[in-house]
Amino acid sequence: MNILILCAQGGVAGSTYSISYLAKGLAEKGHQVFLGLKENTFLDSLVENSAVHRIYMPFKGKLDKKTRTIITKIIDKKNIQVINAQSSNDRYVGPIINLFRKNKILVVQTRRQHPKQMLGANKFFQNIFNNFFSDYLVTVSHELKKIFISRGIKAEKIKVIHNGTPTEQYIQNKRLSQQLKQNLGYTDDDVVIGCVARYKNQPQLVKALKYLPKEWKVLYVGLDEKSYRERFPDEPDILDVPQQVKCTGIIENKAEVIQYYTLMNVNILPSTMDGFGLALVESMAMGTPVVATNYAGIKDVVQHEENGLLYENENYEDLARQIEKAVLNTQLREKMIQIGYEAAFKKFSIQNTINNYESFFEEIIEARKSKKDLKIME
């Protein structure tokens, strides 16, 4: 297959890793994979020295003419069979190009996050765009699919393909873990409540801390204190809690990020925007129990009291109860660790994701070809 993947973003984020895994995985299986991206982004560095063909594009807005011109040339020159748009601005490019082409290109959008609430004209035009100008939507969870259907997207246009993670990367580096622990001033006796994410509604965790022991430690990986405070100008004391709190800031080295999980007694994702929650799978793979919001796609990943714990959104006492349970209930904790391993290494492996995308793309390309052949015969 000849596949063009588009990504206008590409900063340090779980979705960026996911896109790089997908592009490289499909290329390694022998497909011609072209990745339209911005130059010198984090995504650019992740696919460097791989079989993926990088095509630099400006992506200056949803209707950027220069980006459309580049894509049109690639479609014709490389015989592109399917376009897979992975972020906001690039979702508009393929359908707009198809408006002016006789030979239409299959356009597949991948949606990873909970969509913003839209009303009136915005919702009307978005639904027309998704239902009539895009061929398919891939959502990363069944719960996200339900949300898009409730917003007016046709169910038959949506395919669920879970995110995946490369299982070979989950090896504990005891020397690095010990170094990180020493740098943070932690001891083996400390209870550490962790959160590995950029901004994902961490104030819910902050508000739950008053119900938890003061001697426990709090660690935010991927968030720095300055930017965290700046998000809440009306709450200057947002981090002034009884527990010791430390922030690492953004960490680009995935091998290092993974080792932080080993310092934590529990990893918490208090998110209302995730369509999946890759950090939860990473945590499971490293043997750290998870607590997350009972919300949207997270429910595809975490089964309550099986491979993790769920709390009700904005119920801070419930969040605190679930955290205590994950830390103190030894029997439940061991059960969640074991089942979490199985989920991470079997159900949510990147190989499953790559295989599912490959099968789906082959299926829709063949269906389009059969439709054209039938039309010619008529």
UniProtKB/TrEMBL annotation:
Domain Glycosyltransferase subfamily 4-like N-terminal: 14-168
Regions annotated as coiled coil: none
Domain named Glycosyl transferase family: residues: 192-342
InterPro entries documented for this protein: Glyco_trans_1, Glyco_trans_4-like_N, Glycosyltransferase_grp1
Protein name, UniProt field: N-acetyl-alpha-D-glucosaminyl L-malate synthase
Biological classification of the source: Bacteria, Pseudomonadati, Bacteroidota, Cytophagia, Cytophagales
